[in-house]
Write a structure and sequence with these properties.
- The complex is a heterodimer of chains A (about 290) and B (about 375).
- Chain A has about 290 residues and is of the alpha/beta class.
- Helix content of chain A is about 35%, strand content about 20%.
- In chain B, strands 7, 8, 9, 10, 11 and 12 form a 6-stranded antiparallel β-sheet that branches. A 4-stranded antiparallel β-sheet of chain B has the order 1-6-2-3, covered by helices on one side. Chain B has a 4-stranded parallel β-sheet with strand order 14-16-17-18, sandwiched between helices.
- The chains are: A alpha/beta (about 290), B alpha+beta (about 375).
């Protein structure tokens, strides 16, 4: 088992005719993801690597029985793409696009919730259930099937942690990059609960960063609901206040959202916090 | 992106929110001319800088006559407030205040919505109120599909006032402020304080707005108000090249792909006893020109003694980064030692390209960081 996606997931790609969309379509297909279609308005009938292209998400869903979508459209069109996917009945929507206006995401989240769908991202690397399905832009070769669930606000930092897990013989059940923006879809609490309920997940690595108080909330949630071992890493201890560190969401505002507060919150509920990413496997092994 | 109080007040006024706008002045003579247009003798001189804490820094003063006005204006102009030099002041009528309130809209990560925040504890540092007496702040999540209907605006206004005339005025302000917030893609629209005058009028005597950088492309008028500091100009230059940069003042220059990994790299330098010179995320592409530009940016910081490059190749291909680096060193005659860690897609090809170049090549993040710190200590 895994969470959110597995070998039965049938994926469409919104923005498949674009540079990033087509590149990652080939990567996902090569990994074994069941990519059943692509969407690009006005380009129905074309094929990208044998993947049929449709004008609308609704057409794609009707023709292919897709149940998930990944979005590669430019930021100005991302809100519309997310809403189109939800309205066509897709239950999992993964938005890779970076730089989407925050109020667009607020509106899209509201719409997606109404439609009973789930959103991952925007501004995220996507997710992977190793040997089953890859949705997004993660480098597949570093992952290995196993029992550690990975939740992260970052892309390359996730790869760093996964690389260390795999090197230490600890495979992953599913790894999810939730995205680096202030407002994104599924977050720590929902994913922690999914991993807690997944019989194949035996431990959880949580990779947080400065900004907001989601890590503090996650710590409280772990205390009350999670019995599986969790280890954390928090990036941004050296970040100055008031400066945005790459991710739109990674900013310390008036002394709150600091790494120190987040580390203290995890430690107070018995979740060990790694000093460097390479420490995560050791911390999880000790507690497994 | 932040704007000045006087600019925020102009936007408020366009939306019909009662503000005491006053006059913007760049020198003492201007302030005297403004003073002559005022009805009453007492005015307030307010520093216009893109930073909070103006009052505490001495940048807001009451003047009872022309002599005091001259003195305060002269003192405040040129003053340094949190790194910003004051080059203009706002001269406004000093209002009589019966009570002060706090009102704002802000994007809330947890409810994934806009939050209306109100408090009777206005006129003071709201972060202090939030920390010491959080029960004094009311928070109302706004449904983006509904906005702020009359009943909700009234309900919120009743949290601050009992008098129906005051409730009506406030409810109208709350609706206008929400419309303005959404129309401009703000991330914060704050009135602190919103005051009640002895005559029973509700007036915004301060205004603060921050905008979503990701949405500025659809608000060219607001985007044109951007006043970058020297540091922000450097950041902006980096942004236009496709990466993000923040100066941190240390001696180890970092070039990393990905924001999270870049932050973790800074942290690790500190953990191993060094000081990071900067945050620099070169992003996901593997365009060799980007590496050249990033290297130039790093080396323009004269504090940098060692450069640490940490690349985890996912989409970024290690051989492309290596090619870019070789090109960069052909273009820039740098004597500075460079430590490079390459892992991931095409790592072997990348390392092979760099073999025999005099660069310090490492396989893990820990190894690379240790090497960089030791190289600084050896100098």
């Amino acid at each position: 088992m895994s969470i959110l996606i597995n070998k039965d997931t049938r994926l469409i790609i919104q923005g498949i005719t674009g540079r990033d969309g087509s590149f990652h379509a080939s990567k996902m297909q090569a990994y074994g993801t069941t990519v059943v279609g692509g969407v690009s308005p006005g380009k129905a009938g074309q094929k990208i690597f044998d993947i049929p292209v449709f004008n609308t998400v609704r057409d794609a869903v009707n023709e292919t029985g897709a149940d998930a979508s990944v979005i590669f459209v430019p930021a100005a069109f991302a809100k519309d793409a997310m809403m189109e996917a939800a309205d066509a009945g897709l239950k999992l929507i993964v938005c890779i696009t970076e730089g989407v206006p925050t109020l667009d995401v607020v509106n899209a989240c509201r719409f997606i919730r109404d439609k009973g769908a789930q959103l991952i991202g925007p501004n995220c690397p996507g997710l992977i259930s190793p040997e089953e399905s890859l949705i997004g832009i993660m480098p597949a070769q570093i992952f290995k099937k196993g029992g550690t669930g990975v939740i992260s606000r970052s892309g390359t930092l996730t790869y760093e942690v996964v690389y260390n897990l795999t090197a230490n013989g600890m495979g992953q059940s599913t790894a999810v990059g939730v995205g680096g923006d202030p407002v994104v879809g599924l977050y720590y609490q929902e994913l922690l609960q999914l991993f807690q309920d997944d019989p194949e997940t035996d431990s959880i690595a949580l990779i947080g960063e400065i900004g907001g108080d989601a890590e503090e909330r996650a710590a409280m949630f772990i205390k009350e609901h999670i019995t599986k071992p969790v280890a954390a890493f928090i990036a941004g201890q050296q970040a100055p206040s008031g400066k945005q560190m790459g991710h739109a969401g990674a900013i310390i505002s008036s002394g709150s959202g600091t790494a120190a507060e987040k580390i203290a919150a995890f430690e107070s509920v018995g979740v060990p916090v790694a000093k460097e990413p390479a420490e995560i496997p050791k911390l999880l092994k000790k507690r497994r | 992106m932040k704007i000045h109080e006087y600019q925020a007040k102009e936007i408020f006024a366009q939306y019909g929110i009662p503000v005491n706008s006053g006059y913007l002045c760049h020198n003492v003579e201007d302030s005297i001319k403004a003073y002559e247009k005022m009805d009453r003798p007492t005015v307030v001189v307010k520093a216009q800088v893109l930073s909070g804490g103006r009052g505490k820094a001495g940048g807001v003063k009451l003047a009872k006559d022309e002599i005091e006005l001259r003195r305060h204006t002269a003192n405040i102009l040129g003053m340094n407030i949190k790194g910003y030099t004051v080059d203009r002041v706002l001269i406004a009528q000093a209002e009589d205040i019966a009570a002060e309130y706090y009102v704002s809209y802000v994007v809330d990560r947890n409810t994934k919505s806009t939050l209306l925040m109100l408090s009777k504890a206005g006129g003071v540092d709201i972060e202090e109120v939030a920390r010491d007496t959080p029960e004094k702040i009311h928070k109302i999540p706004i449904d983006p599909f509904i906005g702020v209907p009359d009943y909700l605006a009234r309900e919120a206004a009743f949290l601050l006032f009992d008098d129906i005339a005051q409730v009506k005025q406030t409810a109208s302000i709350l609706q206008k402020l929400y419309k303005l917030f959404v129309d401009t893609d703000a991330s914060l629209a704050e009135i602190n304080p919103l005051i009640l005058t002895p005559e029973g009028n509700i007036v915004a005597i301060d205004a603060k707005m921050t905008f979503d950088d990701n949405a500025l492309y659809r608000h060219p008028k607001i985007a044109s108000l951007f006043e970058p500091t020297e540091e922000e100009k450097k950041e902006l230059f980096a942004k236009n090249k496709g990466f993000s940069y923040v100066n941190l003042g240390g001696e180890i220059g970092c070039m990393v792909n990905g924001a999270g990994l870049a932050m973790a790299t800074m942290d690790m330098i500190k953990l191993y006893g060094g000081n990071p010179a900067n945050f620099l995320d070169i992003g996901g592409s593997s365009n060799p020109n980007k590496v050249v530009e990033a290297m130039k940016l790093l080396l323009s910081d004269k504090n940098v003694k060692v450069v640490l490059i940490n690349i985890f190749g996912g989409i970024t291909r290690c051989d492309d980064v290596a090619t870019g680096l070789l090109e960069a060193f052909r273009q820039i005659d740098a004597k500075i030692p460079v430590v490079i860690r390459l892992t991931g897609t095409n790592e072997k090809e990348g390392r092979a390209l760099l073999a025999g170049t005099g660069l310090h090549v490492a396989e893990t993040m820990s190894e690379a960081t240790k090497k960089a710190v030791n190289l600084v200590l050896a100098q």
